[in-house]
Please model this.
Amino acid sequence: MGNFKVAFSQKVPFNDPEYRFVDIEVKGEAEVSCAEREGNENDVNYVQTMIQAAIQDQIFKLDDGKTSYKELPAKAGVLGNEAAAALGVNSITILSFAIASIAPDAKSQERITQLDKTKAFTAMSPAEQMKMMEEANKRAQEELSKLSADQRRQAEEQAKKIMEQQAADMKKIMEQVNQMKVAAGGTATAAAASEPTAPAPAQSPFGKRKFCSKCGAPIGNGKFCGQCGNPL
Model:
């Protein structure tokens, strides 16, 4: 009979009701006993694969779209029982089973943290948001003051690249909006061109003369000069 320890680490996708899809990483260690196995590398890999498959199956069962990933650590005992049952079918007994952690992997945790910050910020009043931004700007200025000239230049260049990228993204959006406006305007212009155009009003023959040919006085639209009576 061989007793040996098996470390395991399994990543499982999970549909959290608040954060949607996250990758849950389960890490731990088990000690098993088996009359037919001595604990060599193949034996360890075999048991490890079975434990990880059992953990994945159980988490899939818990994945109902209503259970939070934060509730999973409390299910460690259930995961252990599932693993023990799977190994027992193959005449392998679990002597001890300990889960070190059940938590989102690094990438999922980064997204969760960002979402939490966003939700906290949007829940603030405009005054609180402004105060927070001012404090953040103050801290940034303090950090910049501690940098050397080269470090400050690098930080400013990085900030400039970020701003340029944001500006480019905004420009692209505005161009798309303008293209939509032009397309809409072109349709309106085409529709207007198809309508009959009213004839322009006839211009008065007297409106072309600006001054009296006899006395030079300014003239209007009458037939005689208002200054000297000369026929126009």
The two ends are 131 Å apart (CA to CA). The first strand starts at residue 2 and ends at 16. The mean pLDDT is 81. Strands lie at 2-16, 20-34, 93-104.
